[in-house]
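Issue: copy button drops trailing tokens. Both records pasted manually instead:
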Amino acid sequence: MAARKKNEKLKVSPKRASRPESIILPSNYRPSEDENFMNLFQREYFRKKLIGWRDEILAESSQTIMHLREETNHQPDSADRASIESGRLIELRSRDRERKLLAKIDAALQRIEDGSYGYCEETGDPISLSRLEARPVATLTIDAQERHERMEKTFTDD
């Protein structure tokens, strides 16, 4: 019985187990290098930032759908229709990029939950707070990202 309880404890991430249900951030809170990296406040700050970004993308997507439904080929002139279709194509491409971004946002939120958010997937080193501020879905440190891009360029130039 004691071995079973010990095994059950190992399955639970310590960061997740210690996370309170609701963390209230000070209104002017910004992550700082002076704090412990990815403490409760930092994780909550980035969680809220990612959720806000996701909500914004979803709202824009809903507006696009409504806009596309309203504009159903009411233009009799073929040049006008072609112009409208071109605009729709650009808008749909943009939404497709945002769809891919939504998947990255969801993956980042999952990393916050499992305690791996903010750490490089390649090296395990902390990703700088300034990089996470600029790109909250970042999974690599700047050095690792640069290596990745050099390797990608090397193999695509052939």
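Record 2 (pasted manually too):
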Amino acid sequence: MFDLTGKVAVITGSSRGIGRAIAEAMARAGAKVVISSRKPPACDAVAAAIVAAGGEALAVPCNISDRAQLEALIARTVGHFGRLDILVCNAAVNPYFGPMATMPDEAYERIMGSNVRSNFWLCNMAATHMAETGGGSIILISSIGANQGSATLGVYGISKAADFALVRNLAIEWGARGIRANGIAPGLIRTDFSRALWENEELLRRVEEGTPLRRIGQPEDISGAAVFLASRAAAYLTGQTLIIDGGLTVKEPA
């Protein structure tokens, strides 16, 4: 039920961290994966590693903030593999850490443009091709910050809350064409993207003590859920967002 053989998956932000872990896991499950991020050498290295491990991968560099590059990403995928079955929107940015009151307009525009508008563009581009071959699975990587207020990551949380709404609406609009849309909301994961958080020893200690599993996550903790959402095992699951945070958000406040 978790076999992805014959499926083609595009994963944005897949040259490292959660995106790379998802790409590697989907390749092991049999999918042909498209590795995409801004830097060509990083994409090439991940694709080569997947091929060396016996998988099939194509590197297509892309800046998600550029609509033309997103269109080229989808066109190159379909042109090379002949189809598109799975889209994972993982790439995101957060150039600002601090209160919203002092946030520069440029930072706000970059966060909302890359994390919301780009996902909106790419999901609709991909869904059009998925519908032509009988359906597919769209997965958005959100964050538990979507359900929490923050004094330092407010607008990032707002952008991730948009993912919750986007998957619900995609599920409704495309469900009749066989397309499912779901999200994953990770807690604190040990990636380069979140390095400023987990390298803060006091913050790390508080998060670990407040998490029932007593640790922060690893990228591989997210990849299995992505394979599940892309597979036949999740054939009747759509419009939902899975929270994967070691139990952090279900623990009562201290």
